[in-house]
């Protein structure tokens, strides 16, 4: 189902540009970051399992085993102070290669392939990650860390840092090695195990690649206020800069639900969730199409993420389509890169989409539509975000 405007789009992107200065301060419910990697805290379980892979992968990450390789992965919560004194509570990923397959014919790894981060020319890039052996006998584990680089077409350039490190029974931070960025190229973070003894398993935590700051492009992610736009059969207050629409006979109902600190995850801020209840898939939705953001700078990767849970009776699961429709200065262009469809349960979970880049002069928003189940169709969403490079004009020595 396309995610174009529900009504004739009379909203010019200039409006969104003028509004941005107004809602910029409100948008920072979740802090900006210099870490280019998606979901470094390994939230959620909706990541990609490719080839012969089992278990679960965190949102926007991938575990894969191909050509005869067999792998498994899972989420392991870590208490505060585990990684280092003062470290926060985070998730680690357990990654195990159960079979390496035939040499030269197979491959296995854990990476950010769904989300590649943008590179800027003449800037150094270096990654880091905490590792600990997860072998049953606590033996050391050899690991290769890499940052493969891709050109503007998404083709692997052959360039990649490849650093071999040894994970012991003590959490240790390791570096990927550094390289110089090429303007318009992208990269991803990848981890592969090297075959050793009887076991080949590692714990992975807190990966990062620091560079130009990323900011949340979604206006008012805390769903404050009631000055948004209601079109059609809408009940409840629409938060500032957002839009709800219900095309007769389809209806949508909204309710802001306060969340306490730590309710989404350890360290999460106090915020509002938005309860969305609709009567069908086709004619009702919730978005900020009236306050679209510019996809500038062009040819830079962007990606979406959001916390969601079902609010159906008995916490029955709910299918949801999350779209990132792209517009020019006046109309929907028929493109929805970065979109994803998921099934949410009665527990809070983090979901994210793939990265994408666009051409100059384009705009986007994030949109939610529930898939009709024939019974209830109700969800809660919280802290929606679209990560994009922050404008550094007049910062860092006028570079």
Short account of what is shown:
The protein has one helix spanning 13-23, and strands spanning 33-35, 48-51, 53-55, 62-66, 70-78, 90-99, 107-111, 117-118, 124-133, 141-150, 156-167, 172-180, 186-187, 190-193, 201-216, 229-232, 234-235, 243-246, 252-259, 271-278, 284-287, 293-294, 303-310, 318-323, 326-327, 340-344, 349-352, 363-364, 367-370, 378-389. The protein is an all-beta fold. The protein has 2 domains: 13-27 and 217-389, Galactose-binding domain-like (Jelly Rolls); 38-210, Jelly Rolls.
Describe this entry's structure for a reader.
Strand 10 (141-150) and strand 11 form a beta hairpin. The protein is built from one helix and 30 strands. The protein has one helix at 13-23, and strands at 33-35, 48-51, 53-55, 62-66, 70-78, 90-99, 107-111, 117-118, 124-133, 141-150, 156-167, 172-180, 186-187, 190-193, 201-216, 229-232, 234-235, 243-246, 252-259, 271-278, 284-287, 293-294, 303-310, 318-323, 326-327, 340-344, 349-352, 363-364, 367-370, 378-389. The protein has 399 residues and is mainly β. The model is unreliable at 5-27 and 393-399 (pLDDT under 50). It is globular and about 65 Å long. The strands form four sheets. Strands 1, 3, 5, 6, 9, 12, 15, 17, 19, 20, 23, 27 and 30 form a 13-stranded mixed beta sheet that branches. Strands 2, 4, 7, 8, 10, 11, 13 and 14 form an eight-stranded mixed beta sheet that branches. The chain has two domains: 13-27 and 217-389, Galactose-binding domain-like (Jelly Rolls, Sandwich); 38-210, Galactose-binding domain-like (Jelly Rolls). The two termini are 43 Å apart. 3% of the residues lie in helices and 45% in strands.
